[in-house]
Specification:
The chain is an alpha+beta fold. The chain contains 17 helices and ten strands. The protein has a single domain (about 40-340), classed as Orthogonal Bundle (Cytochrome-c3 Hydrogenase, chain B). A three-stranded antiparallel β-sheet has the order 1-2-3. Strands 6-7-8 form a three-stranded antiparallel β-sheet. Strands 4-5 form a two-stranded antiparallel ribbon. Strand 6 and strand 7 (about 315-325) form a beta hairpin. The radius of gyration is 22 Å and the shape is globular. The N and C termini lie far apart (about 55 Å). The relative contact order is 0.18.
Length: about 400
């Protein structure tokens, strides 16, 4: 007999609303269907109706509370390309440092959540205690632990001061010492191995076919990383290499365990990048145009379209922006967050797994559902979900309107 188990949209294993329909035979999962769009915040529409592009930048930061560097990063990259804004070199280094601090924070937060999904709450509390160090540094530099408001078109809003550097380096030393213990707890614990080894396998073939990104793709052996493939900010100076699990284990299986390995190694990589950036950061300005009114006018006069890409902790983040001269705000703005594409991986990961594996397999892609929600149209009191054909038709119509 086959039965259908709905996991979500409200479920203890899911921190945000999404529905995973699993068809089971006994304890074995034989079919999977994922349904998004449990809610829609309309951030893109709001961003295209703000008074000016700077207001939309702060809105972009709120697409995701954890990844609040990556979305503004994509937005500034796109707008700067259209408006021809040259970013000072020091600002590019500060952007790299901020992005890598966010990666450390995000991966440690995920590690705690993964431990919780395995029922290992003492490890959750330990990891989140370790995470406090990077949160303290973020607050020291930005004045806030979470939303940082650091990105600005043409640079950054705050400098990393001389007195900040010793404290940042002290934090990095703390993480170097903690790394060995974290690696031992996550990679050598017998229970974690039993719950993650050969669980939720995503083959390299499936990862490529489904266009997976970030640690989800790299754990399957796909050496894809925007910082490596098309470097931006000051990343060309660091020659970042995509990390795959065989670096540590000597093999790549593409399971949940490998996704743990990749994230732990990326924390180590981020520490090394920040250290180099602090040592090599040049002096100089942090903004191309410090007068906000002049900056806004420069952007409003610009015309064209561009795509901003950033390697967020969860994977490649993309923002499409179109500016029209004389238009007060964005003529078009579209966001494709990494989770939106990685959700497709859930089906091959969950097939042939057990019901008890659903929470950790789902969590292993580090999903952010608030980044991925899509619109449901209500007209004349009747609800209509837009299909792929509907979206394609509407996209073609919009492209033709923009071309006119």
């Amino acid at each position: 007999m086959k039965y259908e188990i709905p996991v979500g949209p409200i479920h203890p294993a899911l921190k945000e609303p999404i529905l995973i329909k699993c068809t089971i035979e006994g304890e074995k999962i034989v079919d999977v269907d994922v349904i998004c769009s449990q809610n829609h915040r309309g951030i893109e529409w709001i961003g295209m109706n703000r008074n000016n592009p700077v207001q939309s930048l702060y809105l972009a930061e709120r697409i995701c509370g954890i990844c609040n560097i990556c979305h503004p990063a994509c937005l500034v990259l796109a707008v700067e390309e259209i408006a021809g804004i040259e970013v000072p070199e020091r600002a590019q280094y500060i952007r790299v440092i901020q992005a890598e601090l966010e990666r450390i924070h995000s991966h440690l937060l995920w590690a705690g959540v993964a431990a919780h999904e395995l029922g290992f709450d003492s490890l959750l509390h330990y990891v989140w205690m370790v995470r406090e160090k990077v949160m303290d540094i973020l607050e020291l530099i930005n004045g806030n632990r979470v939303t940082k408001a650091i990105m600005m078109y043409g640079g950054v809003r705050r400098d990393i001061k001389e007195e900040h550097v010793p404290k940042i380096k002290k934090m990095l030393e703390y993480y170097k010492e903690a790394f060995g213990k974290l690696a031992k707890l996550f990679l050598e614990d017998k229970t974690i191995k039993m719950r993650t080894r050969e669980i939720g396998i995503l083959t390299k073939e499936d990862a490529l076919k489904l266009a997976a990104v970030g640690p989800t793709a790299r754990a399957s052996g796909v050496k894809k990383d925007v910082r490596q493939d098309t470097p931006y900010f000051a990343y060309p100076d660091f020659e970042v290499k995509a990390i795959t699990p065989d670096t540590l284990t000597g093999e790549t299986i593409g399971d949940t365990y490998d996704r743990i390995v990749v994230r732990l190694l990326e924390v180590k990589q981020s520490i090394e990048i920040i250290e180099r950036a602090l040592d090599e950061m040049p002096p100089g300005d942090i903004l191309a145009e410090p007068k906000i009114i002049k900056l806004i006018n420069q952007i409003k006069k610009a015309e064209g379209e561009a795509i901003g890409r950033h390697e967020a902790p969860r994977g490649e983040d993309i923002h499409y922006v179109r500016l029209k001269s004389g238009f007060e705000y964005f003529y078009a703005w579209k966001v494709r967050a990494p989770t939106y594409i990685n959700i497709l991986s859930w089906r091959p990961m969950l097939l042939d797994m057990q019901i008890a594996d659903i929470p950790i397999v789902a969590a292993s892609i580090d999903p952010c559902i608030s980044c991925t929600n899509r619109v449901v149209v209500v007209k004349n009191g009747k609800e209509k979900t837009l299909t792929a054909d509907d979206l394609h038709r509407l996209s073609v119509q919009k492209t033709r309107r923009l071309m006119r």
